[in-house]
Design brief:
Elements: H1 10-29, H2 32-69, E1 72-73, E2 81-82, H3 86-92, H4 95-128, H5 133-144, H6 147-157, H7 164-170, H8 186-210, H9 215-223, H10 228-239, H11 241-256, H12 260-265, H13 277-287, H14 291-316
Antiparallel strand pairs: 1-2
Membrane topology: Multi-pass membrane protein
Keywords: Cell membrane, Membrane, Transmembrane, Transmembrane helix, Transport
InterPro entries: ABC_transporter_permease, MetI-like, MetI-like_sf
Length: about 325
Amino acid sequence: MTTTAVQPTRAQNRGGLRGRLRANKSAHGNKPGHKHSSKDARAAIWFLAPAVLGFLIFYFVPIVRGIQMSFTDWNLLEDAHWIGFDNYTRLLSDATFLNAVKVTVIYVVVNITTQTILGLLIAVLMQRVSQSTWVRSTLLLPWLVPNVTIAAITLFILDPTVGLLNHVIGFLDIGPISFYGNPDIAIYTVALVNSWRNMGYTGLLLFAGMQTIPKMIYESADTEGASTWQSFRFITVPLLRPILVMVIVVSMIGSFQIFDTVSVATKGGPGNATRVIYLYIYEKAFEQFDMGYASAMAVVLMAALVILTLFQLRLARSNESDMD
């Protein structure tokens, strides 16, 4: 007597598969880990809620309100009048605004370039010479001092009559130089002063990024006979790219918002040599009470920063590293 094996039909296979899937789904749903993940999600929401609420109240709502005001003529004393795009068309013929944009761009380029180069140099020196906590704390000291205080101190240091720097360069038969009073160099002076203040902090950020680079890569490069410059150029800089881009983007946004150093040291002078866009916005809003026009300038500045940041992140691929 012979027996034949009964092959399961496709319908039976599908039915059995559905049953197994339901069983697995039920089993996974009843696992303790699923409950824990739900609790973690609820805890994350509670922790994020204050930050989200703060963003909505102190950033999102003022941004929306500022965009709305940019389409009005409002002097803070009377009711606002809707004027459409008149404030934006007015910007194109405002020579002071165009000059403020030019001065701000000069400041940003000088500040970002010098601050990044000096910060990178400090990071390399810290990695190769000294990694002590005392050195790191010393580098942070200028960054901990407010910009207003830095501006007041440098007013005395750079003074053409009693300034320490002019006394020093006097021994070289140079000067005296009016660093803040000369319209040709005033904005460069402001940029370099702020570079000196921030280069230690920038260096520490880059130094922290260097610690994530595996040491075996440098050891392999040394074995192959690579010089210090070659290791820096072909290993450190490419692998440091995500941190470097982040530092440049954050520094760029902060540089476009320069206000306090200029307000204390030069008040926008001499002439309009240091009248940056933030200072001009402040003058229009709170000295001339032209809030609608000031809001239009602020919206243009915000849009420019968003575009520059997105372009820079896309160009540099900040989320990618050569270690990936």
